[in-house]
Design a protein that fits this description.
This is Poly(3-hydroxybutyrate) depolymerase. The structure is a single chain. By secondary structure, this protein is of the alpha/beta class. It is built from 6 helices and 15 strands. The chain has one domain: 3-Layer(aba) Sandwich (Rossmann fold). The two termini are 17 Å apart. 46% of the residues are buried.
């Protein structure tokens, strides 16, 4: 297959030969990287047959969260699986860090607002950019994956890693969807602007929508709208977006972009640091900071469905 890794279908080709069969459903696995056995979950959609190339979503949790919590909040294994997507959900390495006067302990993806990796006491020093890209390469040796339809999303710390991947591995993903976590305080150095749909709440106290201190730490980040506008500028889009209201508490900004580019921002007015729609997905009342106007998962999957690498 023109030098592609086994199981990977180059853009414009048909079936995988030989096929890469796998049972449908979620499986917890480990992958060795950097001398560590790293945990991840591989969710295979019901219609996967091992020969037809499947799209893939990389799903990244927030700090102190877990694979199970990311699955529950996003519902991606089910929702993306129904559309034929393979979902890969890795687990960060556990750290302890002082945040807002309290010590928090839990899984963490090693990425900073400067897009590099932490090298400070108390923080894991592993290369998580290298980990997740190597993990995807590994998955693509096991399954028949469409190389033109790989996507990434994450919340909070996972959204920070999403943006680091978009900026540092700009050739890899067809589209990206950061939720509550555009934390960069540097301009993205990418040559290609990956199509992007971002979702963020105006009442997010951890990653302030209007800019300010990240997690209450002395780390200043710019407003979300500025960073999304910067990404639109990188893609050659118009500087001012058009706006519409898909819900009373939702402001949807869409930048006019050249063919192959797309940038959108869903601003949830009064929205907090959460995966939007998670608490109302099954008919419940929205929890504080959530909304019943949109479901972040359906928004991003609709966006992913529209984009592929050329």
């Amino acid at each position: 297959m023109d030098g592609a890794a086994p199981g990977v279908v180059p853009t414009g080709t048909g079936a995988c030969e030989p096929g890469r069969s796998a049972p449908a459903g979620a499986e917890r696995l480990t992958f060795e990287f950097g001398g560590l056995d790293r945990d991840y979950e591989l969710s295979v959609p019901p219609e996967y047959d091992g020969t037809r190339p499947a799209p893939l979503v990389l799903s990244l949790h927030g700090f102190t969260s877990s694979i199970e919590q990311q699955d529950q909040a996003s519902d991606l294994p089910r929702a993306a699986g129904e559309r034929g997507y393979v979902v890969v959900t890795p687990l960060g390495e556990e750290i302890s860090a002082e945040v807002g006067g309290s010590v928090l302990t839990g899984p963490f993806f090693n990425v900073t607002p400067w897009l590099g990796t932490q090298q400070e006491p108390g923080f894991a020093v592993q290369d998580d950019l290298g980990f997740v890209t190597s993990l995807l390469d590994h998955v693509k040796t096991r399954l028949c994956i469409d190389a033109a339809r790989e996507y990434v999303t994450g919340i909070s710390n996972g959204a920070g890693l999403t943006m680091a991947l978009v900026c540092e591995r700009d050739e890899l993903f067809a589209a990206a969807a950061p939720v509550a976590g555009i934390t960069m305080n540097v301009v993205c150095p990418a040559k290609r602007a990956t199509p992007l749909v971002a979702l963020h709440g105006t009442a997010d106290s951890a990653v302030p929508y209007g800019g300010g201190n990240l997690l209450g730490l002395p780390i200043s980040i710019p407003p979300v709208e500025k960073r999304v506008t910067d990404h639109a500028t990188l893609g050659g889009c118009d500087p001012e977006p058009a706006q519409d209201r898909p819900g009373a508490d939702i402001r949807h900004s869409v930048w006019k972009c050249p063919p192959g580019q797309a940038v959108e921002l869903y601003t949830v007015e009064g929205g907090g640091h959460t995966w939007f729609g998670a608490s109302t997905r099954h008919g419940g009342q929205p929890m504080a900071g959530d909304t019943s106007s949109i479901d972040a998962t359906e928004v991003m999957l609709d966006f992913f469905d529209e984009h592929r690498l050329s």
